[in-house]
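New to this. Look over this protein:
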Amino acid sequence: MKEENAITEELSEWQDSASDMMGSEADINDKIERLVSIIKKADDLRLRTLRSVVEFLSPQQAIEFLIASAELVVGIRGWGLNHDRSRPRIR
């Protein structure tokens, strides 16, 4: 929870600083690099959390959990693609 809160706070600070993206190319590149760093921290935390959950499960439960997780990701992605296709395009 502490790590999640720290990442959330860091992202919030980034959003505040990125609200005015006007500036030099170096400033923009620095902001993008900072965002990439925050995203990597969040991905690392998600992966460590997933590994911790799987360690507590029996092998059968772990398989079922990972299959359900994959199905959820595929389903959400499919929904997003369908949603995007149904939106009118702005030219």
